[in-house]
Design brief:
heterotrimer, A mainly alpha (about 300), B alpha/beta (about 400), C mainly alpha (about 325), A: about 300 residues, mainly alpha, two-stranded antiparallel ribbon, 4 strands, about 70% helix, globular, C: about 325 residues, ABC transporter involved in vitamin B12 uptake, BtuC
């Protein structure tokens, strides 16, 4: 077995791949957070809970209605998106005139409600969710077994992130969104329905989270707690990347996933905290984050 | 200061009044059970265990020594602070007479401390750590069903004999996992095997892939799963997914019938299981299990059977003595042999260890299984004094050397 | 907005609390409420009077709990020294957090404190001296000035005395010139800067003080309950203290105490309510209500943020003002 820095090659590559998979989730979730923050100026604490909801819906769809993974990949984000619309219309819109911190607290409350609801029905240990037939099995690369599903996760997330980036940076709708963020009054004066745009942005952001949830369901135990620890890491990712750019959020997410994977090879106990350590270092050197713009 | 004196006098008065009721305290025998009802260990004990205790109370017609039996139970969520606080509250404000601890060694250790403080009996059923009868032994705790020493001796030996000499451990990161890994390593080394390494995972871990990759990188022949419940199930599934099972054999150091049911016979076939009881062992076991099945729609695990047995043993002691005084009942329970559908044996006076036979079994293949839940074929019986730590080797400070 | 005779009101309030065990209250429960009340008061110093939302205060509660527990159990410190040691460790941790977090403000500040607290949590998970998932158990109570602390009642009066002392300290701080500057930072930071105050230094000091007092709460809790566990350092505990302060009333003196009572009582009783309903109706699902502490907590959060931002004491004070005004 070939060794790199005293670590066997299959182990290193395996952890790198797993790191890339984790990084894809970080990227998708911080992307959603960045989009919502850009438009609504709210840090959506509920992002983790809605990601969990996507996964739980996928499981429930299979369990109660026999819906396939592929169906849920479309359906779950739709359902969560609608829920997002409801949350934004009913709850969040009252807070736009207040201190931003209240938005964080409200979405924290929403998190507790969603998690509590699922917990009281399903407990905290995970429900198993099978990898879909088409993607099951592994490719024997010789130096390691590469589960097909994990490769799919990386590819799918990259495609989705690319699509969102293209939508925001390259299309007219995206231009409207960006303009609405900068100067909502002016854009409204041009006849654009800004409140609707805001609602749809929130819905879209959380739909993205739900999509990530469905992707995660076959890999991670689908449990009501799966969002909470993840969201805090994503917060750290967002602080590191800075809220400045979409591309920045994606790159930071992927990069940190890989760093985490590498840490797991050499010092497994530190893998939980390495993202936070990086955050502390970045804060000391560049308080605005790597890609951040100081407003 | 005066208020304090008045308050203290009032409390003292209450204390005397309580002592006057020498027989059954509070005119009721209250049993309290703390177990994991919603997390990784909910299936192997949990609501089923609660049901088993209810069955035991119902079989005594709800009365003992002429007084009513009351039963309270709560979910400790695998948190030692929740268990400790709840146990203390029950003892202080509800006059609890017997504390039963379900799964999780961390919570059991916490509860043992409280029970010893309050001088009331505490029967540990589901927790595995052998520390409960060694370093952490108290005159008030009884370790009933199994412990990590018995598991290690049961499962490790036949696997080493079959050629699995190099091991790598996947361990749950708390008292139980550490205990199981330590005991298994000791047995392994005595049998001539080697420990190539170990990795710890958090309790109720969501993703085992990175830990399994580390295990694979070690090149060991056997992957020892020093975890339980949901963690074991997920480890086995992930090991299959990553093709680990092609190069390593899995050793489930603590497995219950519910785990095999969840994983499925295909994935678990051939695995060795060391357990204290199996529902299909004897006609009496079968009869009781059918009763349990009617209520819970699944076959009981050995822990749930042990819950019933332990509560019955306690109630019989109270009936015989006509008192629920902690010390007296403890002495009676240790002096009376246990002889029921669950097990036969004696509870050791010095450290509270219930010494009984353990059984080594192997998971059947799908075609050998003739009815639902028919999962095990017996391999050998391990006599109690071979399975558990001998008194001479015990690290319990109460054992006089 | 001050009551006409605050000292009298405080003496009455603390007198009632002192008499609670004689009235039949379970001392351990009241002590637990007092510890969380102190935790919330310490947190309130930061959010209510300085305007900084820290989402990682649980780290101080947990750090002090472990430090004190370790000092009492392993090093054999006397109780008071153990408590001070715990609070000191928390203050030190607060200094480290503050140095990193003060660089950003508002939402970022909150997120950074959350992330740092999570880091501390994982450290506790791994460190051998904390006992990880099992927690640090069997922490001895010892004796203090002839008081035998194993007796719940004697411990009760010690805890109450500590609480009163800390409460007095907070009140003194808030009404001091230092406190005035903090309030000005909360109201309008830019103006405070333009007036020449070194705003960052004040914020840091407030943070360290808040952390130290939160640590005192954590250390006391460990002394009372006899253990320190990971739950103390978990982010949900940070959320709980925010809720306590919000429900009770941010920026008021007694609000956090009221909030702590409400939330701790709720957490205790929701499980019992579930059991009772399950027993009555025979529906197993009500058993799960015990899990729904999160659900109820979350709903309260939402309602408070949307419609009840002043909290119980805040609304009461506002009501009092409205009734007083027509008389003038």
């Amino acid at each position: 077995m070939t060794e790199v820095f005293g670590v066997p090659l299959p182990a290193l590559l395996g952890q790198l791949l797993l790191g890339l998979v984790n990084g894809s989730f970080y990227a998708m979730l911080s992307l959603g957070l960045a989009v919502i923050f850009g438009m609504l100026n709210i840090i959506n604490f509920a992002h983790g809970a809605l990601y969990m909801m996507g996964a739980m819906l996928a499981w429930m769809g299979m369990e109660y209605f026999g819906l396939s993974y592929w169906a849920m990949l479309v359906l779950a984000p739709l359902v969560v998106g609608v829920l997002g619309l409801v949350i934004e219309r009913l709850l969040l819109r009252w807070l736009y005139k207040l201190d931003h911190l209240y938005g964080l607290l409200l979405t924290f409350g929403v998190t507790l409600v969603i998690e509590g609801l699922f917990r009281s029905f399903y407990g905290v240990s995970g429900q198993p969710y099978e990898v879909p037939q088409a993607l099951s099995g592994a490719i024997n690369l010789g130096f390691m077994f590469l589960p097909k599903y994990r490769a799919w996760v990386v590819v799918a997330s990259l495609l989705v992130c690319l699509a969102v980036w293209a939508l925001i940076e390259k299309t007219r709708l995206g231009a409207l969104l960006r303009a609405g963020t900068e100067n909502p009054r002016l854009v409204q004066a041009f006849g654009v329905n800004v409140p609707l745009m805001v609602s749809l942005t929130y819905a879209g952001g959380v739909a993205l989270a739900a999509f990530a949830g469905v992707l995660a369901a076959p890999i991670i135990q689908v449990s009501p707690l799966m969002g909470s620890n993840l969201i805090i890491v994503v917060f750290a990712v967002v602080v590191i990347g800075g809220m400045g750019s979409i591309g920045g959020a994606v790159l930071t997410g992927l990069g940190l996933g890989v760093i985490e994977g590498l840490t797991r090879v050499f010092k497994p106990e530190a893998s939980n905290v390495v993202v936070f350590v990086v955050m502390a270092l970045v804060l000391l050197a560049r308080p605005a984050g790597l890609f951040g713009k100081v407003k | 200061m005066k208020l304090k004196n008045i308050a203290m006098a009032a409390l003292a008065a209450c204390g005397f009044a309580g002592a006057a009721q020498a027989q059954i305290s509070g005119d009721v025998v209250r049993i309290g059970m703390l177990t994991d009802m919603s997390s990784v260990y909910a299936d192997i004990d949990g609501a089923g265990g609660v049901e088993a205790v209810k069955m035991a109370i119902a079989d005594m017609k709800g009365m003992v020594a002429g007084k009513k039996i009351e039963f309270v139970y709560a979910d400790h969520q695998n948190k030692a602070d929740v268990a400790s606080a709840k146990a203390r509250e029950w003892f202080d404000t509800q006059g609890l007479d017997l504390l039963i601890g379900g799964t999780n060694s961390g919570t059991a250790l916490a509860m043992a401390t409280i029970a010893a403080e309050k001088h009331k009996p505490f029967i540990v059923i589901g927790a595995g750590s052998a520390r409960l009868t060694n370093e952490a032994c108290t005159p008030y705790s009884i370790h009933y069903a199994y412990d990590t020493v018995a598991l290690a001796r049961g499962t490790v030996n036949p696997m080493v004999k079959a050629g699995g000499k190099s091991w790598y451990f996947l361990t749950a990161d708390y008292a139980f996992g550490a205990s199981l890994q330590a005991d298994a390593s000791e047995v392994l080394q005595k049998a001539g095997g080697k420990v190539l390494g170990a990795v710890k995972h958090p309790l109720n871990a969501s993703d085992f892939s990175s830990f399994l990759l580390q295990a694979q990188g070690s090149g060991a022949q056997i992957l020892g799963l020093a975890n339980a419940g949901g963690d074991t199930i997920n480890s086995i599934k992930a090991a299959n997914e990553f093709g680990i099972t092609k190069s390593m054999k899995l050793a489930g150091l603590l497995m219950f019938i519910n785990d095999v049911h969840s994983v499925g016979l295909k994935a678990a076939e051939g695995m060795y299981v060391t357990d204290s009881w199996y529902w299909n062992q004897t006609p009496e076991a079968r009869a009781w299990s059918r009763r349990f099945f009617e209520k819970m729609k699944r076959m009981p695990s050995s822990l749930q059977a042990a819950d019933y047995s332990a509560v019955t043993h306690y109630l019989q002691a109270v009936e015989a003595l006509k008192t629920d005084d902690g010390e007296k009942v403890m002495a009676k329970m240790k002096a009376t042999p246990v002889n029921d559908f669950y097990s036969k044996g004696m509870i050791r006076k010095e450290d509270g260890r219930f010494v009984h036979d353990m059984f080594l079994m192997q998971v059947k293949s799908q075609k050998d299984s003739t009815e639902p839940w028919d999962y095990y074929k017996p391999v050998t019986r391990i006599p109690g004094d071979e399975a558990f730590t001998k008194l001479a080797d015990s690290k319990c400070p109460l054992v006089k050397k | 907005m001050k009551a006409r005779n605050p000292l009298f009101a405080y003496v009455l309030m603390f007198g009632v609390i002192a008499a609670l065990p004689a009235l039949g209250a379970y001392p351990i429960f009241v002590m637990k409420v007092l510890c969380f009340a102190l935790f919330a008061c310490a947190f309130n110093l930061l959010i209510g009077f300085t305007g900084l939302l820290s989402f990682g205060h649980a780290a101080f509660l947990g750090a002090a709990g472990y430090a004190c527990g370790h000092a009492l159990k392993v090093w054999g410190f006397p109780p008071l020294l153990g408590l001070l040691f715990g609070a000191g460790c928390a203050a030190l941790l607060g200094l480290l957090f503050g140095l990193l977090a003060i660089r950003r403000s508002g939402i970022y500040f909150a997120m950074i404190t959350l992330a740092l607290a999570q880091m501390v949590y994982f450290f506790f998970l791994q460190a051998p001296f904390t006992g990880g998932e099992d927690g640090l158990q069997q922490v001895p109570r010892g004796q203090l000035l002839g008081l035998e602390l194993h007796d719940d009642l004697q411990l009760y009066y010690l805890v109450l005395a500590l609480f009163i002392a800390a409460f007095a300290l907070i009140r003194r701080t808030v009404h001091s010139p230092f406190g005035q500057v903090l309030t000005s930072i909360r109201e309008n930071e830019a103006r405070a800067v333009s007036l020449g105050y070194d705003v960052d230094r004040f914020k840091l000091l407030a943070f360290v003080l808040s952390a130290g007092l939160a640590g005192l709460a954590g250390a006391t809790k460990t002394l009372v309950l006899g253990f320190a566990t990971l739950t103390d350092a978990l982010w949900t505990t940070s959320g709980a203290v925010i809720l306590m302060t919000l429900v009770g009333g941010m920026g008021t003196m007694t609000g956090p105490m009221v909030g702590a009572l409400v939330i701790v009582a709720l957490e205790n009783k929701v499980g019992e309510l579930g059991n009772m309903l399950a027993g009555l109706t025979g529906l197993q699902w009500f058993q799960g209500l015990g899990e729904s502490v999160s659900l109820v907590t979350g709903l309260i959060f939402i309602v408070c943020v949307l419609a009840f931002r002043k909290g119980l004491v805040g609304e009461a004070l506002a009501l009092q003002e409205r009734f007083r005004r027509p008389a003038q």
